Amino acid sequence: MSIGSVFEMAYKGDFNQVKVKLDQDIQIACNRDSNGRQLLHWAALSGNVHLVEYLIGHGNSVNSVDDTGSTPLILAASAGKNEVVLLLIGKGADVDHKTNRGQSALHYACSKGHYSVVKLLVQNDANVNNTDVLKATALHRAAAQGRNNIIELLLLSPDVKLDLCDSTGCTPLHLACEEDREAVACMLVKAGADLHIKNKEQKSPLDLSSLKLQKCLTRLVDEEIS
Fold first, then answer.
1. Distance (Å) of CA 141 to CA 3, 38, 46, 89
2. Domain's final residue, options 79, 99, 126
């Protein structure tokens, strides 16, 4: 993206400058840069709702993909641009589209801790169990990062699967325990996550836990039994 290019203008959310360029040559709206991105991809990152809506009205597809397989929705979700996410979904964006590495908008929003975006995606029927190339779900991402509020949100979904294993055989609970995310681990156990599943190294979540966390989790299980 060259300095002063129309793509940079879109990235900065400069509605007026982009409109001037398109008024001069409407075909620019459908051009792609060296990353395979249209203006809409960059506008989505900028968070400028009016620019995004303008570009959709001038030929940019909401489901256009760049060279990584990312759509404008995935980019907006990753950047935490709530209003753009809502607009794109309303314009027919595929909430479950995956990048070349199998990552959905929900994966990115969970990793980055964008609670409001996660909520929008879940409310619009994003698949909470989608897996990427490493077989990780959104729950894996949020658990590893210790995103307590996002874990709570994902657990509200009746469809969420707690014990899916990633490519290393780890469940979200494994990752929470390994990173010593006590609050997340406790939430997962209370929701019914299995403490005894072993990963490919034959380790259970308890095996990966600190002594303090082990005591906390076993106490929770004992309380549930009693």
1. 35, 28, 24, 22
2. 126
Structure tokens at 41: 């991809």
Give residue 185's domain range.
128-226
What DSSP string describes 149-178? HHHHHHHT-TT--TT---TTS--HHHHHHH
Question: How does DSSP classify residue 68?
Answer: T
Among residues 184, 181, 180, 185, which one has the least CA distance to residue 217? 185
Q: How far is CA 147 from CA 117, 118, 182, 217, in A?
A: 13, 11, 11, 18
Beta strands (DSSP E) in the chain are none
Asked whether residue 138 falls in the same domain as residue 54, the answer is no
The answer to whether 142 and 151 have CB atoms below 8 angstroms apart is: yes
Q: Which residue, 107, 126, 145, sits at the end of a domain?
A: 126
Count of domains forming the chain = 2
- The whole-number pLDDT of residue 225 equals 66
What CATH number is attached to the domain comprising 57?
Answer: 1.25.40.20
Q: Could you read off the pLDDT of 27-79 as tens digits, one per residue?
A: 998 899 999 999 999 999 999 999 999 999 998 999 999 999 999 999 999 99
